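Repro:
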Amino acid sequence: MAAEPSELRRVEDFRRVAERTLSGAAWGYYSNGDGDNQTLRDNCESFKRYRVLPRVLRDVSTIDTSVTVLGSTLDFPVAISPTAHHKMAHPDGEKATARAAASANTGMALSLFANHSLEEVAEAAPQGTRWFNFVLFKDPKRNRELLDRAAKAGYKAVFLTVDQPRFEYLKQITTSKGKDKTHMFYSTPNLVFPGTPPYGTEEYRSHLYSALKQPMTWDDVDWVKKNTSLPVVLKGILTAEDAQEAVRHGADAVLVSNHGGRQLDGVPATIDVLADIVRAVGGEAEVYLDGGVRTGTDVLKALALGARCVFIGRPALWGLACNGEKGLLQLLNVLKEELVYTMARTGCAKIADINPTLVVHENYYMSPRRNNSTIDGYQ
């Protein structure tokens, strides 16, 4: 059901419309987190604990939001996180996502668990900036085939998910509100190889569980680096120690991510660990963030704490649910307009002007020892 554009003014508006538009199964699959959803909630709530410090009397008559990510210039630093099963949000699935991202001149990371193949998505938006997100199979031939297909189809980098040591959810898939459209869960052409059982069968699910490499190790990162010429991004880094290890193993970038609170409840919100990871990397790799970004002000906060770009997962699906490609493009434009607004009021004419002095944690104002200077934005 297409929503009226006039009722979609903030990302929260898209969320509300998506909830009433999607099937119960789709909404449950997209929305649920692990455990008690503590991390899921904290991803958003933690952003609210950082305060923006306006800078006045700056020339912001022209504002440039462009940024370079892995050598590709994007119109603004908000890209699409890899998420599975976009057809549950809209019949055009990841093809609509790719077209919207290309129209906004931003990037999209395609999930291995997408409902369209690498090639189909590339054909849908040939001029777009696309990256491929995957996990490893036990069979190296399958991994090489996927890496080769991604490079041949014009994907600019590979995102290796590193925070899923086991795939227990494949053993028992449950939803919170029913079972309609659950067949979409199995429509994953990038996972099909000779001998793969048909979609939607117990045999397919069992085959997939046994075929995926569980767990992966740092040796697997080395293997990926040796078997592709594309930049390699490690998705799922939450500690400074792992960020430094990623650099030692040749990662070109790290995506600070807790999988949207879906993998392990109780881990930190991504915005809270970002500054530590940026310091640990020390400029030797690009640093991105996903999880909890809902406003243009959130984007600026993450950039001020050191992220080069932020990624959105659930909000992109909400945009698709509202009006397919057009809905997602509208949501991206909302975030861009909010970012421009916030940049103007913090005296930033370009992305490079955004720095740690613009953001402070709320604890600063609660501490009896605070002084009149700003801090680095992380406590």
